[in-house]
Design brief:
heterodimer; A: two-stranded antiparallel sheet; about 0% strand; disordered N terminus; B: 2 domains; 2 strands; about 75% helix; disordered C terminus
């Protein structure tokens, strides 16, 4: 798989390599083993989908996926022990250094939790995805049978899925694996073309996954289409920027672009137009305002488990790639673009917080909160010091786990019509289920950045890094935004604890073992990173990106 | 085991045990009281071990937490922190005793309430004991969480609004302080090469820093402490929180939590940024005096008993700020002892007012009148608490207020004279309160209803905490037990304040030397 990618991209990767393209490039199998495992398991998953009998697919897929993620993690750990400096491999298309390994580890750990969420079938009987039998029924559905009316169709859906038994679409697992593989390549790519391919590999499965919700089909499909269309634009921007940067530097390789920006008399217009467009594509994926418009709709419409996967992992991948780009290729020109991203950070924080305050739906509120968090991450991303890199990596890790647990819990609060995401439905939840309300409050406090949670540690390390890099005013703005954002979360805490429950309010489902495991993982990590962050900080600061 | 660590962990353990036992109300209540009394014993032991005038910070201990950022779990007490810890330890059993049978909002358990109170105590002790700036910030913010649930879960009708307002004000203040803390850390890292949050190290580095650095650090801390204290433009959360909070919680808010603000001035603002403190003192003094006058006038105009208490506190915090920023050791000793005496006087006033409210079921002053005829003992208690609040000579507050005014007058005569007007106003609002609630013939709906008027039949439960009596009864044994220690302290500290002042004075003098100011006249050592 990896070899295949290489033979396609290397000739385009740079003029000089062209002459040697007949040779097999050196492959550091130890370094790319996690990638190979993830992509290999994804391909295997497709085969399982084709050949395994329907009633066994779910168990085989879940086992295969979890095993693949675990195994990739083990290989990653072994490799991380061996090297400290990092190296490029596959003819310089992938640069696997300490920072990339940290991002890979984060992605693998997060997607392990996300796969657990995807696999759960006890909260929503039969799983949160369209049943197998619905594939055949689809043409009828899309013309507007009652199933499409959100809420009105619970009975119909129940009937439809009941005869199928375990009839959950199991291709979500290989899709998630492909996406995960794309994300991993994305934050280790050493040339823009590989980065673009990875962007597509990570995005396309996500578009599909978004549209697979069993309930509220229309919302889910709308989300998928919206995400796809806007995502396609973002990819196009990225590609156009890539072309301009190639025109500027004569190469798509990050080190060569860096060399070109370091001192040349070439046209700055090409450089900054190209950089702007490429970054725009990345900011879109990271849901940074003003490129965030898809976020609330997609978070709201996609199946909750998919949203959890997307919110946690895509954020890591997008910011991983952005960090890589800024640290490796554009450090020398940072004086010119710095103020632009400075502004973007402020806009993202303000948009996320202010619009978040007006939301009446929990999922949309979390979506806006993720936009605000993207703003905080931007503060770290434009801090081009070692400490800034470490802080941003830590923040990504912390934020990912908290978000994962948040979406795990969001799926538990249900009415007969499915998930109850309207805020008013959450009134008095603490009376119905003190445990869920308590844990959710803890996660909300983590998102708000209250001490003793990972959210606070993340903010602290990012802001202190930015402060020491001379961005005092930005830090103050970010702190004020954090204070405002706290209201976002406190509002929900007030609802859950200090309001009387509505007479026909939602119930809290007893989570199955998978969801319990995923939520526990997220909560424990959130607590540990808040109280004993030393180990994670040490890992995050082993070293930077290589090129 | 370190005594100070025990002081922090014991209430924490108590909170866990009580929370687990909350299903069985009597057991939870007695366990909570047991822990609170044990904590009082520990506090007394700490007082006994403390040697005034020895090390700046005593009973200290330190463990590395996040070495990469120079953060450690460091604790230690100076004299001012010690007396504050003692005050919390003293007030907590009284608060529990007061809330023993208090009516809670429907569906709330008393065990949960007491567990949160103990948690609050643990965090508050830890805040006073922290000697690492990062740790201080962490605890400063964490302290908000139990209080948020105490107000929001157990308060009055508009408790959600009050709880959110309280939380957001304090959280915002805290975040601004975080900016300053990060700034201080960054400055230390850039000058010494080693970033640290250790209080003593930072003090050495920052006090040498250029004025502009100091001013920024000072401003951040000042906002956080001014919200907490609260000083006047940032005070608006307190009346709302006071009105909605349950009485027992209000004792903690005005008695202890708010002192974190003034304590912060003494422990952090002045020593860390001495030059900026001296430069910006006029600003703080102005806010303090405005607070004295504004709080007093507002207190005169209040129609709600609990809001009145909030404004009384705001006025007194103005006095404390005046004493701290006048930069004489007399004034600072006065201010530091005022922190204790205010806790005792206002704490008692809040408890007495709470007992009145428990009888009348209303917080509106207009609903009361002539209660002294029916409940003479309660009337007497209100008078004692009130006289201590208005600083009558012979009560504890007089000593502090006198020291503040005496000390401030030598350096800041104009501010002092203006603040003295507050004394007159204090007499006015206290006596007016006493007159309207206690004197004259029994009148007012709350009093008459409980005497057997038309309203008595409709809501007998609300009228009296325990049962359905028809007359407002006088204090019972439990209530006398709650108030008696405070009465004793009001008189003892009023007549013989030396033991407390001896503990406070060396710490204040250390602070003074850290700020780099000396007294214009020779200090008499506070006696």
């Amino acid at each position: 798989m990896g070899v295949l990618t290489q033979s396609q991209t290397a000739p385009l990767g740079g003029g000089r390599v062209l002459a040697q393209s007949a040779e097999m490039p050196q492959i550091d199998y130890g370094a790319v083993a996690p990638l190979l495992i993830v992509f290999g398991a994804a391909c295997l998953g497709v085969l399982v989908e084709a050949f395994a009998p329907a009633h066994r697919r779910w168990s085989v897929q879940v086992g295969l996926t979890l095993l693949a993620v675990l195994l990739a993690g083990v290989f990653l750990g072994m490799h991380a022990q061996e090297i400290n400096t990092g190296a490029t491999t596959l003819a310089g298309t992938l640069a696997i250094g300490p920072a990339a390994l940290f991002l890979w580890g984060t992605l693998l750990a997060l997607s392990f939790g996300a796969v657990l969420l995807l696999a759960d079938r006890s909260v929503e009987p039969g799983g949160a995805f369209v049943a197998e039998s619905n594939i055949l029924a689809r043409p009828g559905e899309s013309t507007g049978t009652p199933v499409d009316a959100p809420g009105a169709a619970s009975a119909a859906v129940m009937q439809r899925s009941a005869p199928g038994g375990v009839g959950m679409r199991t291709e979500v697992f290989p899709l998630a694996l492909f996406s995960l593989g794309g994300m991993m390549v994305f934050c280790a790519a050493n040339d823009l073309l590989t980065m673009f391919v990875a962007l597509e590999v990570l995005s396309l499965p996500l578009y599909l996954l978004c549209g697979l919700a069993k309930r509220r089909r229309l919302l889910s499909q709308e989300a998928a289409v919206k995400y796809f269309l806007l995502g396609a634009f973002a990819s196009a921007f990225f590609l156009y920027g890539l072309a301009l940067l190639y025109g500027y530097s004569g190469s798509v390789r990050l080190p060569e672009i860096a060399a070109a920006t370091a001192g040349s008399l070439r046209s700055d217009t090409l450089l900054f137009a190209g950089l702007g467009l490429v970054v725009m594509g990345l900011l879109f994926k990271g849901s940074v305002a003003p490129f965030h418009l898809w976020t609330p709709d997609v978070y709201h419409g996609a199946p909750t488990a998919v949203t959890g996967f997307m919110a946690a992992c895509t954020k890591v991948a997008a910011f991983g790639a952005l960090l890589r780009l800024l640290h490796v290729a554009f450090q020398a020109s940072s004086w010119e673009w710095h103020w632009v991203l400075w502004t973007v950070a402020v806009v993202s924080m303000v948009v996320g917080v202010v619009l978040g305050l007006t939301q009446q739906d929990v999922k949309r509120m979390i979506a806006y909160s993720s936009i605000a968090h993207a703003g905080f991450l931007m503060v770290g991303s434009i801090t081009l010091t070692d400490r800034g890199l470490m802080a941003t990596l830590f923040y990504l890790l912390a934020y990912g786990f908290t978000t994962l647990a948040v979406f795990g819990l969001l799926g538990l609060v249900r009415t007969s019509e499915g998930e109850a995401t309207r805020m008013s439905d959450w009134a008095g939840l603490a009376r119905r289920s003190p445990l869920v309300a308590g844990v959710f409050t803890f996660l909300l406090l983590a998102l708000a950045g209250i001490p003793a949670t990972s959210g606070f540690m993340g903010k602290f390390v990012v802001f202190s890094a930015a402060f020491s890099a001379g961005m005092g005013p930005l830090v103050v703005i970010a702190l004020l935004a954090s204070a405002l954002a706290a209201y976002l979360y406190i509002r929900l805490v007030v609802l859950m604890f200090f309001h009387e429950p509505a007479p026909e309010g939602p119930t809290v489902s007893v989570p199955g073992p998978f969801t319990t495991a995923a939520v526990t993982l997220g909560v424990v990590v959130t607590l540990l990173l808040g109280v004993v962050p030393m180990l994670a900080l040490d890992w995050a600061s082993v070293g930077g990106f290589v090129s | 085991m370190n005594l100070l660590l025990a002081l922090i962990l014991l209430p924490l353990l108590g909170a866990v045990v009580v929370a687990l036992a909350r299903g069985n109300e009597p057991a939870a209540k007695w366990t909570a009281l047991g822990f609170a009394l044990l904590e009082l014993v520990l506090a007394a032991a700490a007082w006994g071990v403390y040697e005034p005038g020895a090390a700046r910070l005593q009973l200290s201990g330190s463990v590395d937490w996040i070495p990469r950022y120079g953060v450690s779990l460091s604790f230690g007490l100076d004299g001012i922190a010690l007396v504050m810890v003692a005050v919390i330890a003293l007030l907590m059993p009284l608060v529990l005793g007061f809330s023993w049978n208090e009516r809670l909002p429907a569906g709330r358990s008393r065990g949960g309430f007491f567990a949160l109170l103990l948690l609050q105590q643990a965090l508050t002790v830890a805040v006073f004991a922290a000697t690492d700036l990062f740790l201080f910030y962490v605890l400063f913010e964490l302290m908000l969480i139990p209080m948020y649930f105490l107000i929001g879960g157990y308060g009055g009708e508009r408790r959600r609004y009050a709880a959110v307002k309280f939380f957001l004000y304090s959280f915002l203040g805290g975040l601004i302080m975080l900016a300053s803390a990060i700034g201080a850390y960054t400055y230390a890292a850039s000058t010494t090469g080693v970033g640290t949050f250790d209080w003593a190290t930072l003090r050495g580095v920052l006090s040498e820093a250029p004025l502009e650095v100091q001013v920024w650090v000072f401003v951040g801390f000042f906002v956080a402490f001014a919200v907490k204290a609260p000083l006047v433009p940032l005070h608006t959360w307190l009346p709302d929180a006071a009105q909605q909070a349950p009485v027992g919680v209000l004792v903690l808010v005005v008695g202890v939590l708010d002192k974190v603000g003034t304590f912060g001035f003494l422990r952090y603002s002045l020593p860390l940024t001495p030059e900026a403190s001296r430069m910006l003192a006029p600003l703080v003094l102005t806010l303090g005096v405005v607070g004295v006058l504004y709080g007093s006038l507002q207190a005169l105009g209040q129609t709600d008993l609990k809001r009145l208490l909030a404004y009384v506190s705001i006025a007194h915090f103005g006095f404390i700020a005046l004493g701290i920023f006048a930069f004489t050791s007399q004034a600072q000793v006065g201010a530091a002892s005022y922190m204790v005496n205010h806790s005792i006087a206002t704490g008692m006033l809040v408890l007495v007012v709470g007992m009145i409210i428990a009888r009348g079921g209303s917080t509106s002053i207009a609903d009361y009148g002539g209660m002294a005829r029916i409940t003479p003992l309660l009337g007497g208690m209100l008078l004692v608490a009130g006289l201590s609040t208005l600083s009558l000579p012979g009560t504890n507050s007089f000593v502090s207020e006198f020291l503040v005014l005496l000390g401030s007058f030598t350096t800041r005569p104009v501010y002092t004279v203006l603040a003295t007007v507050g004394l007159v106003l204090a007499a006015a609002y206290v006596l007016r309160l006493y007159q309207r609630v206690m004197q004259g013939p029994p009148s007012g709906t709350a009093v008459l209803d409980t005497l057997g008027g038309p309203g008595a039949a409709t809501d007998p439960e609300a009228a009296v905490g325990g049962g359905s009596r028809t007359t407002p009864r006088d204090l019972d044994g439990r209530e006398i037990g709650v108030l008696a220690p405070l009465v004793v302290l009001v008189l003892v500290l009023g007549l013989y304040p030396a033991p407390m002042l001896d503990v406070i004075t060396p710490s204040v003098e250390a602070t003074m030397s850290e700020v780099g100011v000396t007294d214009p006249v020779t200090s008499q050592g506070g006696n």
